[in-house]
């Protein structure tokens, strides 16, 4: 099988004309296709169908290495810029991400569903076009002799060959920033000094604080009636889970220790454990617009946080999970948790939470913005209004009438476990500073910059 994979991957890469460093994408695509083709081990059956129990959809299969146009979101371009970017198709990103495309311009991988394919043009053809264009530019701009331009004076430098390696060296230089991407991803996803497992949390100096954080999380899960303990039914499986630990820096240097029980959702199977997973979050453009309105009209700006937001979403599937480590019920260790509510880590958890919150806002008479489904507005008889922005479990509430904002806060607290943070001071890593007398608002990311500098000892 290994030889089969390597032979097919080599053929696909060479046919597309892709450089050798795309071997991993070629191998990944080969395996993807083999799993969706007839197998002699299954008497001609399809491995993918045997595993998931449903028919394979072949309608989205495309030629490896072909030209593809990836749609550019309107938030990432101006009105006069192109609506799509020309890329090369290099694989499948799975059910969540659609297709993997290589940006020739930016030297990076883009994952998108909103694409248009041109399977008649391959990477090697496009590269050749670029080289020819480069040769023409070189001849006309740099090597024209002084004096009268003649046909011969232009033609001679066009036939020279050194331009091709120049283009290749340029592409390799532009690819260098990818070397730092693992560190940057690690920086964004983790913080120093935080335990990676339950055992580590119980052995560090701050073990008492982590234990208290886990107790609070477990208490919240129990109060929310997140699961029932049952025996695992025959033919069913129990998903694993883990504790995730984070230290949150508050204003004034105060540190808050947080623990969260997270389901290992990567083991879920579509069509069995979940169906739809998409859930929107408020756009940064919307947040900046609202902050601009707040500053211009001197509105109140309040912030709220939903405690264990995903627990409020109701599950539509039958799911089982192992008991959380350190909190197994004595005498019932062999039993599992039958989930009644969503948990962090479940693929459908964000969507279920959003559906419940959206339904609540509609019941309170708020209108969902057409261009941003996580921004809600409501007008009142006195001419005042409220704008609410939702980013997963963080909320910004802006309005002229503080009394109406208090009414909304009360309504939210009656339906969800809320934490009123008062006047907004920080959202999505941005520090908010206001001088209402001067009608000024300042946004900064000082803490984020400090973390980056500390991480790289700068």
Question: How would you describe this structure to a colleague?
Answer:
It is a single chain. This protein is an alpha+beta fold and 458 residues long. The chain is 34% helix and 24% strand. It contains 13 helices and 20 strands. A six-stranded antiparallel sheet has the order 13-14-15-16-10-17, sandwiched between helices.
Mean pLDDT: 80
The count of helical stretches stands at: 13
Range of strand content: 15-25%
**Main pleated-sheet profile:** 6 strands, antiparallel
Radius of gyration, whole Å: 28 Å
Low-confidence stretches: 137-192, 270-277
What class, by secondary structure content?
Answer: alpha+beta
Q: In which range does the helix fraction lie?
A: 25-40%
- The first-to-last residue Cα distance is 49 Å
Q: Would you report the number of β strands?
A: 20
Order of strands, main sheet, comes to 13-14-15-16-10-17
Shape from CA axes?
globular
Offer a few descriptive terms.
alpha+beta; 458 residues; 20 strands; 5-stranded antiparallel β-sheet; 6-stranded antiparallel β-sheet; 34% helix
Task: Show the helix and strand layout.
Blueprint: H1 2-16, H2 23-34, H3 47-52, E1 66-71, E2 84-94, E3 98-103, E4 108-112, E5 115-122, H4 123-141, H5 151-158, H6 163-174, H7 181-189, H8 198-201, H9 207-223, E6 227-230, E7 238-239, E8 241-249, E9 255-263, H10 284-297, E10 300-306, E11 320-321, E12 336-339, H11 349-363, E13 367-368, E14 375-379, E15 385-391, E16 394-399, H12 402-415, E17 418-423, E18 426-427, E19 430-435, E20 440-444, H13 446-455
Parallel strand pairs: 7-11
Antiparallel strand pairs: 1-2, 1-5, 2-3, 3-4, 6-12, 8-9, 10-16, 10-17, 11-12, 13-14, 14-15, 15-16, 18-19, 19-20
